[in-house]
Amino acid sequence: MYSFLALFTLVLIASICKGLHDNTCRVVPKDQYIEVGSDTKVVCQTSCIRGKIFWTLDNRHINESLSSTINSTHTVLSLRNFTNRSATLQCHSAATQQVLGGTTIRTYSKPSKLSCLLHHDNQATQGLPDLFTCSWEHQIDPPLEINYTVLCDSWSCPPQSEICSSHQTTCTSNYVDISDKMPLAWPSSVVVIARSAAWNASSDPYEFNPFNILKITRPNVSVVAVSDHLSVEWNVTSFSERKLHCQVKYAKAADEGTPEWVLNMTLETKEEKGEMSVENVESCRNYTFAVRCALAEAPWSDWSQERTVLTKLNKGDVELHLWRKVAEADRNGVRKVHAMWTEIPSTCQDTFTYTVRQTPYREHVTGGNHTDTLCGSSVCDIDVNQDAHRINLRIFHDDFLFVEDSVYVPSIGESLPRVTDIRTSTLERVILVSWKAHAQPVSGYMIDYTHDGNQYHWKQTTYTNATLFDLLDKKPYDITVTPLFGDKTGHGTQALPTCSRVGDPGNVTITELKAKDKSVLVRWTVKSQEACSGVVVDYTIFYGTQEGPPLNVTVESTTQDIILKGLNPETQYRVYIKATALTGTSKSSERLFKTKRFDPRLSAALGVSGGILIVLVLSLGLCCAIQWQKFKEKPVPDPGNSSVALWSSTSHEKGICPFQPFHNPSESFCDRIYTAEAQRPSTSPPAAGSNDNPDGDQNMREEYGDPATVLAPHIQNEVPAEPVETHHPSFPGETTELLCSEDSPSSPYQSQRPVETPALRISKQCMHVPVKQQEKTPPLTVYVTLDMFEQGQGR
Predict the structure, then answer these.
(1) Whole-number pLDDT of residue 22
(2) Using an 8 Å Cβ cutoff, are 265 and 246 in contact?
(3) Angle, CA 717 vertex, CA 713 and CA 721 arms, to 5°
């Protein structure tokens, strides 16, 4: 510091002397480094101007009281306790605000918090320490290349005796090389010097006693597991008769995460061996131990290597918590008892044997026979009859009885108390159970519960309510409450199945979309894969076009179809359904549908009408085709091939010209052709007697129905003179002609001779019947009987 002031004074004198001859302005000294918190002075030469000046530090005005004028050309600024890491100082003209000169001031700090340590490089070695290490703190901003040197500052060391050097804030030396400078028995002192290109800084001296900075080697540790505690032992080398203090820490093996260490009390001893007993450890759990020791006022040694040990099974920690679940008796009165107990931790490496002994209760009291059943590690199924029994669980370790417990099974008809009015409620995977106690005093209650009938859980309480935790999510649980009293247990009462948590409603699926022009039918179903789904309260149907606002309709839970009306024809819509329960909601996937252009019922009606019309047209065409076919098969006969005869009117008792009608077995009555201009009863008088047999004519008419009488036009009003009777042959190919007027030139029929059959031909003469001229004869009915074959075909 003093050298700096001397240098500053010389610079100031030189500047003043030079300023007497120079006409310049500047600030000196330039770019100086000072120790943080120290004082400094800066000179501003103002030969180039006249008038006052002022100072700024990082563009902020400095109080004028810190500045003093030496003469008209030099002004000195004094800065005290300067702590800025770096600052820009400038001198300005007060008249023109012109910067006359400037400089940068930077600070540095000296090393601090120096400490040293005597220690061993190898923790397994014994003897004197082999390393001497010092460390310190030093803040440099901006970072510079600094050389550090640790010097011995003791009276026993030569001046400026170097111990070690480094470019870091730590330095290590071999203690064997410096043990003559700093023996263990003498106090010593060191100092650290930091050197840069622009400055040097020295730390405060660090004085120490070598035994106070001696870090001994880590202890050797062993752990032994006893039945109910753990014994920890260790040994350490201290090279001193001073007291040792040691710490023991341990951690229980954690199921998840990092185990939490527990620091036990600190022990003080002059012995290099130590021992500690750790009580209250859990059975069959892994514990990890570590130990460290130190001399008085010296730093702690490193922690010893960790030792892990498995604790023994403590008999006092075993709580079997034995319980049983009794099933209904079968037809033979046999009941299955499911015995269960708290399992001994699987981490225990000891071997255990489990047996269940069932004893009828009376024999148990009087000391009768019993039966042992070898069981598993936590459950056992046995059969008992309808009598009361006591179930004894016995656990053996190395063939010795380790622990036992028992439970009572009442008989079927035994009168024992029973709880009533069991109520359950669910809240986020927690079931709350409450019941009404029996009037008879009880010692407690046992609640057992299961979600699958195989894995049971149970807990005991003295209250009339219980809370069941750690349940599987959305599972139905069967819960049974059984009262306990004395050495017996009552009958259990089962509550209704209760869900650990009621979830959302089941999955909603749209099963049908039947769209019309202005409406659509929507059907859906709800199915759930879980037994604890929420009960649907209502359904909300959301629908709308892709661009339009969504619409919705809400229906009751009993409805699973709806008709949405008021839709636009030939428009695409989207629809989905949301089911709402008290515990949540679920919705279906979105479906798209498009309405029809026209009402489908109109198309159906048109289709039905068109079908009926087509059927009618086809039927009519078919009938016409059939009739045309029949017409083609029955050609119109030639009148020239027909026989004519005049039959008497139906009003005459006797026919004038009786004859046997044509007969063709192949034609029906409907095939006959009737042509008549008028059909009236004849007023002609009956004909006179004839040689013909009237009975034969009458029989003939009865056989063939109405006779056919054909009259020529010119004789319609006259009575024929000589009717001719002609009989049909017995075969259809033969033609018979009958003419009543032989010489009628105006007859439309050709005059033909009848086919003569010698055996059948009989000449008969018809009688003439007088007819009044003035009386007009009504027209007669003319019947034409046709032979459907040509005359030539019949021959």
Answers:
(1) 60
(2) no
(3) 90
SS3 195: strand
Q: Which one is predicted more confidently, 450 or 675?
A: 450
Q: Which among 125, 302, 121, 295 is positioned nearest to 214, based on CA atoms?
A: 295
Two structure tokens written together for 21: 């001859």
Question: For 501-519, what is each residue's pLDDT tens digit?
Answer: 988 898 999 999 999 989 9
CA distance 458 to 479: 9
Q: From 285, 392, 403, select the one nearest 352 (Cα to Cα).
A: 403
What span, in angstroms and rounded, lies between the C-alpha atoms of 198 and 192? 17
Measuring CA to CA, which residue among 685, 506, 479 is closest to residue 588? 506
Whether 394 contacts 355, CB under 8 Å: yes
User: Cα–Cα distances in Å, from 712 out to 291, 651, 661, 784?
Assistant: 157, 20, 18, 12
Radius of gyration over alpha carbons of the chain, in Å?
69
**Which amino acid, one-letter code, is at 597?**
R
Q: What is the pLDDT of residues 662-681, one digit of tens each?
A: 444 444 444 444 443 434 44
Residues in contact with 592: Cβ distance below 8 Å, sequence separation at least 6, in sequence order: 572, 573, 574, 575
- Tokens linked to 14: 């030189």
Measured distance CA(764)–CA(722) in Å, rounded: 9
* For residue 574, pLDDT beyond 90: yes
pLDDT tens digit sequence for 141-163: 777 789 999 999 887 788 778 99
